[in-house]
Specification:
This protein is mainly β and 172 residues long. It has a single domain, classed as Porin (Beta Barrel). The chain has 1 helix and 10 strands. The strands form 2 sheets. An 8-stranded antiparallel barrel has the order 1-2-3-4-5-8-9-10. A two-stranded antiparallel ribbon has the order 6-7. The protein is elongated, with a radius of gyration of 16 Å. The chain starts with a helix and ends with a strand. It is found in: Cell outer membrane. The record marks 151 as: Critical for activity. GO terms for molecular function: acyloxyacyl hydrolase activity.
Length: 172
C-alpha cells in the first residue's frame, strides 16, 4: 500500500514537471456513486499538441489528466485516490462553443480497499471514463462524466465502483 502511494506521488511529481512545459488546466468536479458516496475531484490537465482526423465536423485530440479524489462515504470512513489517465476527445467544430465527447483508460491508487459496501480487492485500480460537455472560447469547459474503477479481476474481490459527476475546467 505504501509503495503504491509512493509510486503515485512520484507519478504526480513527474506529471507536474511535464505541465510546466505545456500550458496546464485545472478541473473541479463533484458527483456521487450508486452507494450515495459523495465524490470531490481536483485535477490538472495538459492538452496534447496534436489532432487527428480533422474535418469540417470536428477533430480528435486529447489530454493527460492527473487528479486527486476525495470519497466521502455515509457508512464507512472516507477514502482518497490519485489517478492518471490519457483521455481522447472528439471535439465538434464551432466558433465560441464546441461540444465534445471523451473517453479514456488510466490507473488509480486508493488509500483503502473498501468504499462503502464495495470491496475493491486492491489499492491499484484501472480508471475507465466517458463524458461529454461544452468547451467555450477562452478555454473554459463544463461537462458530465462517468468514471468506473476496477482492478480488472487481478485480485478478489473486485466489486469496483462508479462515480457520476459534473465538472468544470479552466485554464491556469
Amino acid at each position: 500500500m505504501k509503495k503504491l502511494l509512493c509510486l503515485a506521488a512520484i507519478a504526480a511529481v513527474t506529471l507536474g514537471h511535464s505541465f510546466t512545459a505545456n500550458a496546464a488546466d485545472a478541473s473541479f468536479s463533484v458527483g456521487q456513486t450508486g452507494d450515495s458516496t459523495m465524490v470531490y475531484r481536483l485535477g490538472l490537465q495538459s492538452n496534447w499538441d496534436a489532432s487527428w482526423w480533422q474535418t469540417s465536423v470536428g477533430r480528435v485530440t486529447g489530454y493527460w489528466d492527473g487528479a486527486y479524489t476525495y470519497w466521502d462515504g455515509d457508512k464507512t470512513s472516507s477514502n482518497h485516490s490519485l489517478s492518471f489517465a490519457p483521455v481522447f476527445v472528439y471535439e465538434f467544430a464551432g466558433e465560441s462553443v464546441k461540444p465534445y465527447i471523451e473517453a479514456g483508460i488510466g490507473v488509480a491508487a486508493f488509500s483503502s480497499t473498501k468504499l462503502e459496501t464495495n470491496k475493491l480487492g486492491s489499492s491499484f485500480q484501472f480508471e475507465d471514463r466517458i463524458g461529454f460537455g461544452l468547451r467555450f472560447a477562452g478555454g473554459h469547459e463544463v461537462g458530465v462524466r462517468a468514471i468506473h474503477y476496477s482492478n480488472a479481476g487481478l485480485q478478489s474481490p473486485n466489486d469496483g465502483v462508479e462515480s457520476y459527476s459534473l465538472h468544470y475546467r479552466m485554464p491556469l
